[in-house]
């Protein structure tokens, strides 16, 4: 596929920087325009941004002039990735979609809009293959950084065994709070037992993605880990509880749909299941599969108390920009 030129909205923020990094060597997409706030508009990207990622700033964006986030200045691109804060994404993303652009967003502003698909491609990506929306362009969102690994674990279990209830405690990494994030006084040697705004997203977004009426109870805490959200998941079933072996085997055989083959960011086996009770650990496995894998371990239980397990996903890659990028690849693959 011939590379196409794309834009990034909110390019100077933490999510926007990750978009620029992950698009640097992408075979299908080339960043041609970067947009940010009026305070940064007109400046070179390298002069306006305080680069926060471990890798170097991509040379392809460093000398781009930052534009305002308005459709009329994004000439020459059809696709824009949005790393905008949700407080401004609500208006700006719709403006781009109405102007004929395809908008692939990581923001929460439109996730529950009835005309906007909320997509994890391996779970419900079929909706992107024949997308119809009330705008001349398109608007697609990916879910919360905890919801992505959660629904990837739930999808095969819901389909085969009939999950009725989910209790999930997410131990969320510091990078999930953005920059400057949680203060050192609060995070060093400490755990914050509540993350405002997180729990309602985790309890509602999976229902739209899975198309099922599940009972979900969520607890979200902030832990002193840089990257990687670790989930403790407890599952209740509508019928008989499957065995640990049945759950493990089912998760191990969960594969990326065949129609996604060819997407550069897709993994054949997106779930990695561990027998070692000491896995998954963020420090050891977060970068496997270039950060796109979801890791599952400590599957245990059976009987009336259901099944418990742990799941881990890289929150800024698999749980955010990586999912948005994969959504864009699916769109490009099936609408080209």
What's the gist of this structure?
The chain is of the alpha/beta class and 336 residues long. The protein has eleven helices and twelve strands.
Task: Give an overview of the whole structure.
The chain is 29% helix and 22% strand. It is α/β, with parallel strands linked by helices. It has two domains: 4-143 and 321-335, NAD(P)-binding Rossmann-like Domain (Rossmann fold), CATH 3.40.50; 147-314, Dihydrodipicolinate Reductase, domain 2. The strands form two sheets. It has a six-stranded parallel sheet, sandwiched between helices. A six-stranded mixed sheet has the order 8-7-9-12-11-10. Helix 5 links the parallel strand 5 and strand 6. Helix 1 crosses helix 11 and helix 6 packs across helix 8. The chain is globular and about 60 Å long.
Q: What is the helical fraction, as a range of percent?
A: 25-40%
Q: Which fold name fills CATH's third level, the topology of the largest domain?
A: Dihydrodipicolinate Reductase, domain 2
**What does the radius of gyration come to?**
20 Å
CATH architecture of the largest domain: 2-Layer Sandwich
Biggest sheet, in brief? Answer: 6 strands, parallel
By CATH, the superfamily of the largest domain comes out as Dihydrodipicolinate Reductase, domain 2
Write the H/E string, N to C. EHEHHEEHEHEHEHHEEHEHEEH
Poorly predicted sequence stretches spanning 5 or more consecutive residues:
none
The helix-and-strand class reads: alpha/beta
Top CATH class of the largest domain: Alpha Beta
N-C termini distance: 9 Å
The rough form would be described as globular
